[in-house]
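so my prof wants the structure for this chain in the tokens format not the other one, which i didnt know existed until like an hour ago. anyway here's the sequence
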Amino acid sequence: MEARQTLAVKGGERMTGTLVLIGTPIGNLDDISSRVLATLGSLDALACEDTRRTRKLYEHFELDSPRTIFSCNDHNEDQAVKRMAGLLRQGLRVGLATDAGMPGISDPGYQAVTMATEEGFAIEVIPGPTAVASALALSGLSASSYTFLGFPPRKPSKRRNFLMAEAEADHTLVLFESPHRLGALLTDALDVLGDRKAAVCIELTKMYEETARGWLGDLAGRFTEETPRGEVTLVIAGKNRKFLRALGGEPS
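here's what i got, hopefully its the right format
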């Protein structure tokens, strides 16, 4: 009730702000949609992960940027959401975009949606490419049921416990990881989950995109010795006999 009393009034009618969640390309700018471009060019304000990168996006597509652009990242998300709330109470159309992909998917976003829901603002989504869907499509593994786990813990013991919680799951697992920790993650996954089919997707949609498919044991061997360059999405098969390798080296 208090939030509604603070909304701007125009012509005797209460104005309702709109929060717009905007998906941006995960690498190749040609993947941007005409709807995203139209939306970016029509906002009253925009919260984004990195204002410098977002301004370059506006410059690349020769779009008029909103007067108000401010950062919303892991370090200032609480303050940024409060600022968004203030703008929405004025009846403005406020966008939220991250550097790549969809807001809220391992990036800031859910706090803004929670705020907008609680205060009664309208919420729209302008979808774009995601690394999760792209990696699943490339993996050659079942995507009929999967769990996205985000980034695993950095500490080895916590990472192994993290994986142990999914050891009996029969659905596909999708994770993000730093290229410098990929070898350790694959080694832990092999020890905890057993030797399963997996796919390492590197630099999706970019010039040096690569997908390495195979058994966890083979992938762990490669990426323990070789550090990939660029962002990594890892897809691991669920506990299904079709995708498990027996001790003899063949599917069980």
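also thought this was worth mentioning. The longest helix spans residues 77-89.
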